[in-house]
Design brief:
- The protein has a domain of about 160 residues: Protein of unknown function DUF3822, N-terminal domain (Nucleotidyltransferase, domain 5), CATH 3.30.420.250.
- Helices cover about 25% and strands about 35% of the residues.
- It has seven helices and 15 strands.
- The strands form three sheets. Strands 1, 2, 3, 4, 5, 9 and 15 form a seven-stranded mixed sheet that branches. A five-stranded mixed sheet has the order 12-11-10-13-14, sandwiched between helices. It has a three-stranded antiparallel sheet with strand order 6-8-7.
- The protein is globular, with a radius of gyration of 19 Å.
Length: about 300
């Protein structure tokens, strides 16, 4: 699959030898939809083993309709995405139209108000969804385009379909990976944003995402959060996930200011075959963590 001026390009694909299209009824399909990227993961629900993975970059879109059209073009030529009898399909939405509410304060009838507090909402074009992090006792409220919802509901009408949000997956993944006696700052470097989290005693202390406009913003926001949480840049541990490596400019800049930096690993609940060794363990953490959510 090649990119066009307004199309998509396949960056990475891995297919486990155990993947069997005849067993789709026992597989969970995980899809992450971004504005400029798109990922797919297929997990065998019987043994929590990742069997299939793809990462795409998307072309520029001038509207939500153009973006949805790109998704549809990709689905049209894909060998398995249009299959209708998955055990379950989870769609993760990757955008900034969300709000997080403590579960104890959450009122279902106020979902629209929660979202409007943090982002504009066009009720004629957008639906409001919620995703619960039971472990963190947090409810994420987020918007999804009605056109996108209708298309996916029609496509996956014969299976369990749920919508979740990238931030909720990251929170769940971090809580599942956290060590009880350690309280590092957790960072996910996305292609276009920076996500920062802190947890303690199986509780979420902090989550925020930052739009990165220039390279210096990475360190600026991390230092700001460290200071706000009372963490020391010389001694506090920082764990990194995402599109970053030891030879990347981001990492080299981090270690100039923050000494105790390491890389996170994959969610412990998932199994990976040897073919996935070519993907660094700290990559695609948000995609894998969709599996941990209970929509």
């Amino acid at each position: 699959m090649q990119a066009t001026a307004h199309g998509f390009k396949l960056i990475k694909k891995i297919k486990d030898d155990r993947f069997d299209e005849e067993k789709i009824h026992q597989y969970k399909l995980l899809i992450q939809l971004g504005i400029r990227d798109f990922q797919v993961a297929i997990v065998d629900g019987e043994n929590a083993r990742l069997l299939f993975f793809e990462d795409y970059v998307l072309g520029d879109s001038g509207s939500h309709a153009e973006l949805t059209a790109q998704y549809q073009q990709l689905f049209d030529v894909h060998p398995v995405l249009q299959a209708g009898f998955w055990n379950e399909v989870r769609i993760s939405i990757k955008h900034s139209k969300f709000a997080q509410v403590p579960q104890a304060l959450f009122l279902p009838e106020a979902t629209t108000e929660y979202l409007r507090f943090n982002a504009p909402l066009d009720a004629t074009k957008e639906d409001v969804y919620v995703c619960r992090n039971q472990r963190a006792e947090v409810v994420t409220v987020f918007a999804v385009q009605k056109e996108l919802v209708a298309w996916l509901q029609n496509l996956y009408g014969n299976t369990r379909l749920s919508f979740v949000h990238q931030s909720a997956a990251l929170i769940e993944g971090v809580l599942a990976s956290a060590q009880p006696q350690q309280h590092p700052l957790y960072i996910y470097v996305d292609r276009f944003k920076l996500h920062v989290l802190a947890v303690a005693d199986d509780r979420l202390l902090y989550y925020n995402q930052f739009l990165i406009k220039q390279f210096a913003d990475y360190v600026k926001y991390i230092m700001l959060v460290l200071k706000g949480l009372g963490m020391d840049q010389q001694t506090s541990q920082v764990l990194l996930w995402g599109y970053i490596g030891k030879n990347s400019p981001h990492y080299q800049e981090f270690i100039k200011y923050i000494r105790n930096v390491g890389f996170g690993s994959r969610p412990p609940a998932l199994k990976f075959g040897y073919l996935f060794d070519e993907i660094q363990e700290h990559h695609f953490f948000d995609l894998y963590a969709i599996y941990l959510l209970q929509p």
